[in-house]
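FAQ
Q: What does a multi-component entry look like?
A: The components come first, one per line:
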Amino acid sequence: MPWTQVSCQYDGTYPGFLSCVFDCYVNREEPVEFHTPEDMCCSLYPLRAVETDEARARRVYRSFARFGQEGQRLAARCFLTCLPDKELWLWRFLRLGYEQGPRVGRNLTDPTVDRVRKAVWHLEHEAHQYKGFTRFSELEGVLVGEIEPKNQVLPLLRPHFCSRYPQERFVLYDRAHSMALFHQPGPRGWAILPVEDFQMGPAGETELAYRRLWRSFYDTIAIEGRYNPKCRMTHMPKRYWAMMTEFQKDWDTAPPEVRAE
Amino acid sequence: MELLDKLNILADAAKYDAACTSSGLDRSGRPGTIGNTTLAGCCHSFSADGRCVSLLKVLQTNFCVYDCQYCVNRRSNDVPRAAFTPEELCELTMGFYRRNYIEGLFLSSAVIQNPDYTTELMIKTLRILRETHRFGGYIHAKAIPGADPLLTRRLGLLADRLSVNIELPSSPSLALLAPDKKKEAILTPMGQIRDGISQSRQELAVYRHAPRFAPAGQSTQMIVGATPESDRHILTLTQALYDRYQLKRVFYSAYMPVSSSPLLPVPEGFQPPLLREHRLYQADWLLRYYHFRAEEILDETQPDLDPRMDPKCCWALRHLEFFPVEVNRADYEALLRVPGLGVRSAKRILTARRVGPLSFEGLKRLGVVLKRAQYFLTCSGKMMRGLQVNEDGLLRHLVSLEAPALAPPMPEQLSLFGDAV
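Then the predicted structure of the entire assembly, as tokens:
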């Protein structure tokens, strides 16, 4: 007998989604859409409201080990991507995974696996780009940085920056998802927390001097005879530029104004 | 002199060095230190010429006792001169590194007083960086030809990657343009570094804490287009360097007219051979990742790379008997020879065909560039549907695929008034 089609309502978090997977398997139901209580929508499908249950979510998460190394990576990271209807794609991927086992990671020509793989690739690529393109400013001994990624890259950036600056206190704010990574020296001295309102303070004298030095270095290092703006944009699309020191011309003279509350 | 001016002068003097990679070594940060390195390297920015900015690329000093004709820092050239003190340079590196501007330091130098003195200065800088600041990021250092082997060894123990510039692709050119540098003086440190690296590997296998000598390997670079060597000569030399000296990379740098010496191309109207450099890099990739040999890419009848097409396409057109390749059967090496298939897509094909047979539809999903590959592949014995091939049309089609990238210089705007205005 085919599974009943339902519309799943959950709280929008990753454990919430995993609880949905658990409930759907227990009740033999096939979700055709996912939404949060805030979404104003009406659906022709019967509604299934799922309570988030940490223990069940953990059980589902552990079961990803059955998909083999590659499949596990895709399943664990797909929820961080900006793929439209990522819950639905991930659900299809998981069903495929429970059916096929480790084969799912190799089944690259399958439409579902292909979608998920490309989305995860986009996420990982963006995270890699941000390893380089993130800029920190030193404000009263704390390094503060700001990014605006399409995917949720903070969990992927976390190991890199924590390993890079073990003795530093730093904050990396993700403007697009209103999350921030905090770090202080010490074992497990990090946290990724939601942040409501974030504003970078004014820069000090040393900070401004370093920004000047960096901009001047950046302008000097280009060879005029090889000027190639298209190549630069291919490697570093313009959406990254706004947050990068080398393109912020006005910060020299005046510190950025603090916007009115 | 202010730090800003020094940085401008010494970055300007270093910018013609092609290497700016931070790859080849995975080292995670440890408590009490600052910095890590990643195997794939990391680009922190791209300059207006489209080249990656990964390391703080500067010279220790641009005071030089040599007079190499092609070099912007030659003794006879009238440019502002400056030198970093080791402390200054370390402060600058740490300041940049903490703000995530850079992945590390690329330290080169003109020869001040003599090679030994220059190397000692560089060692002093790197020691402060590693020992006082406990810097664990990437350091690429240039070995100075003619320096004492012991000094080069100490440099290699502090740096991650060492490089010796081979400068020009043949010894007659070197004798002509860089009379102070000898071929032997360049190859001796290269050989020493190679031996140092392999010895260090062996020691590390026995003692985990043995000192690491240039753990990210060594590289070199040469100038292309300043002297009359053919591409075939350059590629053969490159291959010999990979085989004999176990280099990680050979960089090519298209000659930029920085000098009006009568021995070099006239600077007026000189176009740097950027396309030739690009083709050489493509051929270099074929040597390193695609199991090609230099003799296969170019032979005596064809001493230069075809500017219209990439070297792999050229090879394929000369060896049509090798094709078509059957996607579901062919081994990895055969797949790599197909134009439009890269290392990644070839590996994906190997993975995906374990699950089931591949079709052209499936190949597209894997990221194969079918525009190019369709002529050289069969899926389960069938060519792509609707495809008609003859040798002539194939060449024309493949050339037209690359045409947009090779657009000729913009035609001049016609003016009604001509030059009279």
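Q: Is there any commentary attached?
A: Sometimes. For this entry: Chain B has a mean pLDDT of 90.
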